[in-house]
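Anyone else keep sequences and structure tokens together like this?

Example one:
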Amino acid sequence: MTRLRCALAQLNYMVGDIDGNVDKIVAAAQRARDELGADAVVFTELAVSGYPPDDLLLRQDFLDACRRGLESIRRSVSGIEVVVGFPERCEGRIYNSAAVLRDGRIKLIYRKHHLPNYGVFDEKRYFQPGDAPGLFLLGGIPVGLSVCEDIWHPGPVEQCVRAGARLVINLNASPFHIGKVAEREAAVHARIAVAEVPVIYVNQICGHDELVFDGASFVMDRRGEVVSRLPEFEEAMDVVEFEWDGERVTPVKGPVDPVDDESASIAKAVVLAIRDYTRKNRFDGVVLGLSGGIDSSVVLTLATEALGADQVEAVMMPSRFTAEMSLEDARALADNLGVKYRVIPIEPAFQSFLGLLEGEFAGRPWDVTEENIQARCRGIILMAISNKFGRLVLSTGNKSEMSVGYATLYGDMAGGFSPLKDVLKGKVYALAEYLNRGREVIPRRVITRPPSAELAPDQKDEDSLPPYSILDAILEMYVERDCSIGEMIDAGFEEHMVLRVVNMVDRNEYKRRQAPPGVRITRRAFGRDRRYPITNGFRPGKR
């Protein structure tokens, strides 16, 4: 009976930081060999370059640097088999490749077969597909190699097994959305049902612009049971042992980390995204406008968890319409979190702008214009603090608001990153309850009071919007599932309400195009996922 010890390296890479990524890979390989006693270590898809490198792949100097990075790993690591992903340029073509390295030589290069070109993926823009099976011996065991999408489709895994593989390794950079762990494991289970071999599935963790990668690497045996799973949203490396009797490979059951529930996974995704976006882009912490409302309270709490209280600044910018309870709740939350907190009233700036525009607006009634001026006063203050102290401005709008344009360009939309951009309002409340699970950090009144922009007397969100319970359900169908008006009416929504929401969504594309990037947590987020034209004459009908 032969035994094989294989380390799964679930690491956080930075796109374009080739030297840093290589150093991390080399250090992890040496640790796997020396401390964990591993015979092999498996890294993730395009680990050398970071994923996704996008149009960096069009630069010859970038590809040359990636090749040098692979060569550095080859020269630096011995005594252990290394499986690692990198972008390969060969004879004028670019491939999404994986290399098997051992004692200074390249044993195998495998080129990804299936190139995803949907949702957030556009790999066909850059890569050519491979077609040859990846097969090599690892401790005497015939092992098949595949990359990410290859395991979601019939073909590459079965090809490896026909060539003799008794164990399959799959390198991944699979981005998170709600429920993604179950989807991945179901896809691997489907391949195993046909191929009847165990699979090692290794996924990266990191925040990269709008995308967040959640790890949750796992090993599944030939019966489709998960026998090992690494944690979600954390760097981790663990060894899984395999037994080989000359015919079958059997993984030894190890720790199986649990899968987070929805609110926990959203919170962890947002925390990781804030941390990586802030630190990788070299900001000196973050600043945000704290209103005493639910959205800014949730963002402040998550930002503090991501960066620590000393890296977070909250600014309350009251106007003549700010309720006393908003001031009290904002102060209480800031005290609970221990963050830097200041109050900068906007009334002097607001009065100045009204004075400047008095002649221009003569004879015109007060309307949304004056409301937006208040929001823009706040945006100016936050951006000034950002410029002066190098802090990243976090905008605090949610997906419900961004969908229907209930936000002010250059006002509350100002900022460099939008943590709740893909979180519907109902899920924001669920996040607040989750964040209060141990103790009441967010004051109860913030959660229970009716939401308000506080830009006009006695203002409530539902003065301008449908109830969030209805709005969110329509948005989930229209934005995330591309349902027609007829389908939404058939689902029980009133026609006038559906038409109202659809019209608001469609006419506010120009605002969303100017919004900061935000964390993708659904399978259909604004940005890389949902790409609609701004100038758009299509008006969907009922059928």
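And example two:
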Amino acid sequence: MRSILSILLLLVSVCAFAQNKSLIGFSPAAAEAHAQAETKFDSYLKAKNIDDWIKRLSARPHHVGSPYGKDNAEFMVSLFRSWGYEAEIETYYVLFPSPKVRVLEMVSPTTFKAKLEEPALKEDATSGQKSEQLPVYNCWSPDGEVTAELVYVNYGVPDDYEQLERMGIDVKGKIVIAKYGGSWRGIKPKVAQEHGAIGCIIYSDPAGDGYAQGDVYLKGAYKNQYGAQRGSVLDMPIYPGDPLTPNYGSTKEAKRIDRSEAKNLLKIPVIPISYGDAQPLLQALGGPVAPEKWRGALPITYHIGPGPSKVHLKLAFNWDTKPAYNVIAKLRGTELQDEWVIRGNHHDAWVNGANDPVSGMAALMEEARAVGELVKSGWKPKRTIIYCAWDAEEPSLMGSTEWVEDHWDELVDKTVAYINSDSNGRGFLFAEGSHTLEPLMSGISKDVIDPQTGISLFERRKSLDASNASSVKAKKEILARKSLSIGALGAGSDYSPFIQHLGIASLNLGFGGENGGGEYHSVYDSYDHYKRFKDPTFEYGVALAKTAGRATLRIANAEVLPFDFAAFHKTVNTYVTEVTTLLENLRESTEIENQMICEKRYVLAQDPTEKYVPPVAKESVPYLNFSSLQNAILQLEKSTAKYAELAAANPNPLTNRNQLNELLYKSERKLLVDAGLPRRAWYKHTIYAPGFYTGYGVKTLPGVREAIEQRSWKEAQEQIEIAAKALENFNLQVEAASKILMQR
């Protein structure tokens, strides 16, 4: 009786909610109907399906070109067709190196040979599928054999090499060993190579990914002494995708450049290892003791070297072309078939990939199934919805990038938005994307209930942000927030070609924060691990389907697309403030540093026995002219305020609505620059890009910010003018949209 009463109360509350619902881009009547459709959509979602599909898709290793990768693609196509979609596999032929020789050994002062292997665990049903598993390696390392002294470089990022220089330690001709963390893995060999190193080893220190975090697998979720993180080290900040087909799709007939011409391939061999394999190498190092912040959690004293530890590294690869199977499932719109809402997640994995990516893929599938059920009940999408399961994401976003490059002209013309997900876990909503879509996501975060706490996703995320606040004042400000703030997009998943190459407004969604573990890119990323430690009831898979599903459905059926220029202006204004402050801080710190260097040189000059030579003083930081960028922001403030005023007065115009919507969804295109960013023309967005030395991490106003960071003053001024021009073009789009709203 109590359960029936609870259901009735829930239905009453849902009906009341639907009747009073206000949705961005919908008239009151349309909002009410759409809210009822979303309630029905929710009712179709089943955690059991997500459970079943995670288990099925991760039952065997399914990397690029593997038999089970193809089997999974065919399985998904058959499901999409059964749900009412026009589904097919689009195949691309991509370069994919796999290892045939892997040797890492210490040759002095003692000998040790790294195992480079993750043993099967009887309690983990899929960990023993050795014949199908890719072994521990870094994809896109070149072939090579080197022997040299070892140097410990902390995270191996540019700041670490500045510290080494201050200590008088040079890595030229050496092999470096770096911890995972601090940046994307591909940055570590890239920076090592730039400093003259001849090889690179990357290991997972237990301080960040092992027993210092919690009990290790199997007892707990965290990385054990054998676990190692596979992964790509392609220089993706130059361009992602197949390195042999830059800017065009890698179809079977595509012309391929020679491997030596690919600008994003490394020159030095690199390999990942477990902390079990790393400990003997680090323990044998001499030289100065590492700074406190560089030390990990291994039971050793961390030294930097160089030597006396000397290592021999030998790697060789099969440089094969493999088929990549993209699943493309289309649900045609009833009114605007040539306006596309694209929703994607990748399906390939380094090994079994229950968490990365299958947890997100299974949630997408359940979302698509529920949309199919909604259509059968009578609901129809105005715009075309396309669900995509990308292959070859792990090596370098190849499945999505090649598809985008192959279909770029049609995508630029028709795509309204791209909504991405990847791995998914338990905890808090994490949302990143185009800030024109921030109010849309804010509304969704308030409408979806967190399955664990019973409060909205918005309130739960706000509590996380408040708990992490650095001061009481900041905590109060966060708790007073009325809307969700989303992050900016860098790289690392399949949204990158959509937003950063084509200028398509994009979102990246997922849950996490309470699903820690060390299974990432290892053989232990299994169904057994996921069910125990990630999302045991699969209810956050349902939460992801509800969240991304609402974004898809609302964009698909909005009368006026839910793009918000004011939110974009507010965010970009903070970026302009950040880069001007960056320049001021750099000027001040340079003056202080140069003064200290001069003082040190004076003191050392008084002691003829002193051999240490301090660094040369840095060039003074000039003043840059930000006026064009600041003027563009001021003009954008006026135009966005005008658009907001007109939109509030005429939220769903009948005149030229289709023309208005086209202006809205093509507004992001105006932020592109044809020439692209300096030294990496593939990235064309002037507001968001992955950092040249951060990899996955975003750099906002990247052309300006990175030129300042690299102390390239002429380039910084040029990039200020380029960014200002892009914002002026965006502003013209806003003004054109306002003119339509003025037509009654």
